Automatic annotation (TrEMBL), chain A:
Family: Belongs to the RNase PH family.
Sequence ranges of Basic and acidic residues compositional bias: 358-374
Entry GO MF terms: mRNA 3'-UTR AU-rich region binding
Highest classification ranks of the organism: Eukaryota, Metazoa, Chordata, Craniata, Vertebrata
Protein's recorded name: Exosome complex component RRP45
Record key words, sorted: Cytoplasm, Exosome, Nucleus, RNA-binding, rRNA processing
Coiled-coil regions listed: none
From TrEMBL, chain B:
UniProt keyword DNA-binding present: yes
An annotated GO BP: rRNA catabolic process
Keyword Glycosyltransferase recorded: no
PANTHER family, per the entry: EXOSOME COMPLEX COMPONENT, EXOSOME COMPLEX COMPONENT RRP46
InterPro entries, per the entry: ExoRNase_PH_dom1 (IPR001247), ExoRNase_PH_dom2 (IPR015847), ExoRNase_PH_dom2_sf (IPR036345), PNPase/RNase_PH_dom_sf (IPR027408), Ribosomal_Su5_D2-typ_SF (IPR020568), RNase_PH (IPR050080)
Location of the Exoribonuclease phosphorolytic domain: 12-131, 136-200
Name of the featured protein: Exosome complex component RRP46
Keyword annotations of the record: Cytoplasm, DNA-binding, Exosome, Nucleus, Phosphoprotein, rRNA processing
Length: 402, 220
């Protein structure tokens, strides 16, 4: 499916609006859209809505042998997928440039910044380490996928709990969540990406561009930072030339935004922790907005069982009778062949010459008897071989043994 | 084996749905059954690739995306079940040489996943406004080791069951549009499960009606 192209008048309108410091949805130049973070029932599942952009992240773990070059470190694996739901332009299983850029940026932001302590993921050095897998699915594309993906990934990683392990000598015991409480990952800091869109060769900039703004942008600058004002990664794409003080200004804006977003993530994590501890309801079912007109919920409802037996009896009586179940398949004899055990081969194998004549006679007799007789084929080797011509007992000996 | 006790195990878990929650797809819906949650998005009728076009009807494509890992044969099997159900109800001859794409994202799997996918698909198709001859819903039944039928089983109940069946029931005459079964059971048990699913589907169809009434209550 093709994406609807942006018309020329929309493009001029957007560029003019940026020049006048106005945005389509009424935001200020440095404003972020509303961020909503919800967690699911199992640990490590998180949905982030950045305005209308929606992203789902899931963290899972597995015990694997470590990499040869790093035998004492765990492995963290990132996989971002652009679901075809997010935009008509996204096709399933297609490597587009956007996908590669997003994946690479996510890896650089989270892996190269060493925000996760991989040494603590080691169980038995050189043999078994935890592999943490982060799957990020983009569900709706309304611009700024990078920021939403990084917020979702770091929130999911902070929310995730891996199973507890105990090592006694060479034996590893992995406890299920019922036996021992799962353990959180050791995360040093939370790097979050902030995107800046540049227009008119770097003259104007916007923070958190929406999809339409992204389509008219000249270049994009993504700064990954944590709340301690440490820059984890910078990426500039689009080929625009930026001045030093522009980049410095962007990093100052980014530090303000990152501290706000980190507070938001921590608040969401605290809320979730509190609800789980108090034994309340948690998960996506609870976080579904009830007051919306497009949403509806129903409580547990018993299914009426009256009349089910009668209905079933009716179906059975109305339907055809099932064919009889026979323990071994039966084939009406004439004209049919059978492959397999228990039947004498009629391929005219070379037998001893004395028996040749007798064999021919037997075959003729067999053919006569076979006309209306039912031949039972047995799969079992222990069952007695059926003798078709009871008046020629010699035939038993002549049967080739299978 | 023949007599099934249909006792207190037959409840439909708490269910809910939200429509029109994504801005890009033409129709979207999420359906929750207990903790199982599926998000569905529909695009269509839209342009179709020449190698996939059918001259007199729309081409329906279904994609099921698992939460972790790459999609495998299991997802393909689910896609086929959902696609066959949808093709039976959609009036695809109204849109020849077009494509209808239905994408299902598994948000959480706690049992009865296929029926949750079917319900989410139906709500998303309704939200997209695609013409359908009738609505459909999915109901899952499990037969446990004591020969009790459990409707809408959780993942735990599914694991302990002897047989697991999912039926797609249509809204006009409560016929079975699609069935997917796993495990061993007798013909009588099958008929009882179908009868039970038909009874359970009444609740779900009533829920569809209530959702649509609520949604358009301000307009009508």
């Amino acid at each position: 499916m093709k994406e609807t192209p942006l018309s020329a008048c929309e493009r001029t309108f957007l560029l003019k609006a940026v020049e006048e410091k106005k945005r389509l949805d009424g935001r200020q130049t440095y404003d972020y859209r509303n961020i909503r973070i919800t967690f699911g029932t199992d640990y490590g599942c998180c949905t982030v809505s950045l305005g209308k952009t929606r992203v789902l992240a899931q963290v899972s773990c597995e015990l694997v042998p470590p990499k040869d070059s790093r035998p004492t470190e765990g492995i963290v694996f990132f996989n971002l997928e652009l679901s075809p739901m997010a935009s008509p332009a996204f096709q399933p299983n297609r490597q587009s440039e956007l996908l590669v850029t997003l994946n690479r940026q996510l890896e650089r932001c989270l892996r190269n910044s060493k925000c996760i302590d991989t040494e603590s993921l080691c169980v038995v050095s050189g043999e078994k380490v935890w592999q943490i897998r982060v799957d990020v699915h983009v569900l709706n594309h309304d611009g700024n996928l990078m920021d939403a993906a990084s917020i979702a990934a770091i929130s999911a990683l902070s929310h995730f709990r891996r199973p507890d392990v105990a090592i006694q000598g060479r034996d590893i015991t992995i406890f299920s969540p019922e036996e021992r409480d799962p353990v959180a990952l050791s995360i040093y800091h939370m790097p979050i990406c902030v995107s800046f869109a540049f227009f008119q060769q770097g003259t104007y900039l916007l923070v958190d561009p929406c999809e339409k703004e992204e389509q008219v942008t000249d270049g994009l600058l993504v700064i990954a930072m944590n709340k301690h004002r440490e820059i984890c990664s910078i990426q500039s794409s689009g080929g625009i030339m930026l001045l030093k003080d522009q980049v410095l200004r962007c990093s100052k804006i980014a530090s303000v935004k990152v501290s706000e977003i980190t507070d938001l993530i921590n608040k969401a994590l605290e809320n979730d922790k509190r609800v789980r501890k108090e034994g309340g309801r948690f998960g996506f079912a609870e976080s579904m907005p009830k007051e919306r007109i497009t949403a509806l919920k129903r409580d547990e409802a018993p299914v009426e069982m009256t009349g089910v037996q009668e209905m079933a009896e009716e179906f059975l009586s109305k339907g055809e009778a099932a064919p009889e179940v026979v323990s071994s398949p039966v084939i009406v004899a004439t004209g049919t062949g059978q492959l397999g055990e228990g039947v004498q081969s009629t391929w005219g194998l070379e037998e001893e010459d004395e028996c040749q004549g007798e064999m021919d006679k037997e075959e003729k007799k067999k053919k006569k008897a076979e006309k209306d007789e039912v031949m039972v084929i047995s799969d079992s080797e222990e069952e007695e071989v059926v003798v078709l011509n009871p008046e020629a007992p010699k035939s038993k000996g002549k049967r080739p043994k299978h | 084996m023949d007599q099934i006790e249909t006792g207190s195990g037959s409840v439909l878990r708490e269910y809910g749905s939200e429509q029109n929650l994504l801005s890009k797809p033409d129709g979207s819906a999420t359906f929750l059954q207990g903790d199982t949650s599926v998000l569905a998005g529909v695009y269509g009728p839209a342009e179709v690739k020449v190698n996939k076009e059918i001259y007199d009807r729309a081409t329906l494509e279904v994609v099921v995306q698992p939460k972790v890992g790459m999609s495998s044969v299991r997802e393909r099997a689910r896609e086929q079940c959902v696609r066959e159900t949808c093709e039976a109800v959609l009036l695809s001859t109204l849109h020849p040489r077009s494509s209808l794409t239905l994408i299902l994202q598994v948000v959480h799997d706690d049992g009865s996943l296929l029926s949750c996918c079917l319900n989410a698909a139906c709500m998303a198709l309704m939200d997209a406004g695609l013409p359908m001859g009738r609505l459909f819903c999915g109901v899952t039944c499990a037969i446990d080791s004591d020969s009790q039928i459990i409707t809408d089983p959780t993942a735990q109940q599914e694991r302990e069951s002897r047989a697991l069946m999912t039926f797609a029931i249509d809204s006009k005459e409560r016929n079975v549009l699609m069935s997917s079964t796993k495990g061993s059971f007798s013909v009588k048990e099958l008929q009882q499960c179908i009868a039970l699913s038909q009874k359970a589907s009444e609740k779900i169809f009533q829920f569809y009606r209530d959702s649509v009434k609520r949604r358009y209550s301000k307009i009508l």
